[in-house]
Amino acid sequence: MEQGANNNIIAECKRKKKDKEPAVFYADHMEYKGESYKYGEMDTVSVYASAMRYGILLENFSGFIKMTFRDGRKLKWKINGNAFLGFGKNKLKRDYFANMYEACMLTFFKARAAEYLETIRNGGTVTIANVTVGANEISGKSGLKKATVPMPDVGGSEISSCFVRILAQDQTHTVVNPIASKFDNAVVLIPIVNALIGGNQ
Fold it and tell me: Is 105 a residue whose pLDDT tops 50?
């Protein structure tokens, strides 16, 4: 397996308590199941998570992060868990998924966003899942109509219930229709939008 210039581990993401093959994140790449994946080589990502409750008896959580890379490789990190009458690994699996998502957001997704941001800051626009983003405005559908929103009217972006939401300045509503996180690179809109409005991403 490849070792980056900085061999310090920045995150280790497991799918179970005694995971012999966790996803290990380094400064410039992640290693998983004997493969090395550089952050800047990710092409597309889709994310899905579902938490279901069946009465008071059963809870279920399942989620995945799927990525494709420019060399043709594909990676799917999948996790699920159940709890019966409150006993089980449902919450633990949700925590494992959240850790993986956060690690990917700081590495793979951030690197992909940087490429889009370079295009935008050079005067271009990028279109992701039917949302077009430029330096000065965001365009997409609002209801059934097309909407174009000046960037000063945008208050940030977040993921909630498997949808990426681009929020108005007052944080009370979305400026374009929410985008399902399973669409290619939809989650990458989060660091793009937050960077453009001066966020912390």
Answer: yes
The CATH number of the structural domain formed by 11-104 is 2.30.29
Q: How far apart are CA 140 and CA 38, in angstroms?
A: 31
Torsion of CA 13, 17, 22, 26, to 10 degrees: 40
Percent pLDDT > 90 in the chain is 72
Report the DSSP beta bridge partners of residue 158: 165
Checking if the pLDDT of 4 tops 60, the result is no
Ordered by start, the domain boundaries in the chain are: 11-104, 111-196
User: Between the CA of residue 7 and those of 2, 33, 61, 142, what are the distances in Å?
Assistant: 10, 18, 33, 46
> What is the pTM assigned to this prediction?
0.87
